[in-house]
Design brief:
Elements (H helix, E strand, L loop, with lengths): L2 E5 L4 H12 L5 E4 L4 H9 L7 E4 L2 E4 L3 H11 L5
Parallel strand pairs: 1-2
Antiparallel strand pairs: 1-3, 3-4
């Protein structure tokens, strides 16, 4: 699953989100909203006004959400038989 973090420089919630994704060993891409105007228009089109915005497959959310990141990590682990 592709995970993209749309962030801004010096954003504590963005840093915490990336740290949590790394801690859970999830691969992700970071897009700087101050440098990518198309990405900014896209997240605004989704209705978001606060960074970070995380897009993971069909799911997306705004802000630091360790509960959502934990659920992503759990979904990424193959079921044990």
């Amino acid at each position: 699953m592709s995970v993209v973090v749309y962030s801004m420089p010096a954003c504590p919630q963005c840093t915490a989100t990336c740290r949590e994704l790394s801690k859970r060993r999830l691969d992700y891409e970071v897009v700087d909203l101050t440098a990518d105007h198309e990405a900014l228009a896209m997240v605004r089109g989704l209705g978001y006004k606060q960074a970070p915005i995380v897009v993971a497959g069909r799911e997306h959310w705004s802000g630091y959400r360790p509960d959502r990141i934990k659920a992503l990590a759990a979904a990424a682990v193959p079921a044990q038989v």
